[in-house]
């Protein structure tokens, strides 16, 4: 990831409706949600929500797939992972013990570390 891509992703999340939409999509992984359902749950007009979801998609934070007459949006977890790694790639100047609490929280109950017991 480069600075421009990271800035676009963070900019997409800097707007409250998009941040709420993104968090809602994460909550509904891996099934995703139809654009209309995202709009309904967040009480936002459908055309406005479509614009917000397009911004998240262009920023690499969501994906869209047409299913019949609906467009199903999903959080792009690979994009989130890439952004998170970019943000902490030089974590604590190479002192891994300082980053341990952050890593432990990121691999908490919802996403157990490989080999860890839930």
From TrEMBL:
It comes from the Bacteria. This is Transcriptional regulator. SMART domains: HTH_ARSR. The keyword Transcription regulation applies. Residues 1-95 form the HTH arsR-type domain. Pfam families: HTH_20. Keywords: DNA-binding, Transcription, Transcription regulation. NCBIfam families: HTH_metalloreg. One of its GO terms (molecular function) is DNA binding.
């Amino acid at each position: 990831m480069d600075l421009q891509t990271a800035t676009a992703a963070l900019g997409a999340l800097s707007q409250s409706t998009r941040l709420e939409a993104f968090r809602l999509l994460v909550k509904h992984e891996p099934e995703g949600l139809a654009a209309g359902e995202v709009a309904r749950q967040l009480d936002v007009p459908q055309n406005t929500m479509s614009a917000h979801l397009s911004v998240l998609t262009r920023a690499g934070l969501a994906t869209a797939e047409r299913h019949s007459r609906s467009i199903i949006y999903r959080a792009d977890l690979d994009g989130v992972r890439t952004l998170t790694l970019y943000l902490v790639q030089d974590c604590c100047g190479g002192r891994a013990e300082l980053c341990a609490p952050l890593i432990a929280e990121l691999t908490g109950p919802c996403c157990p570390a490989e080999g860890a017991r839930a």
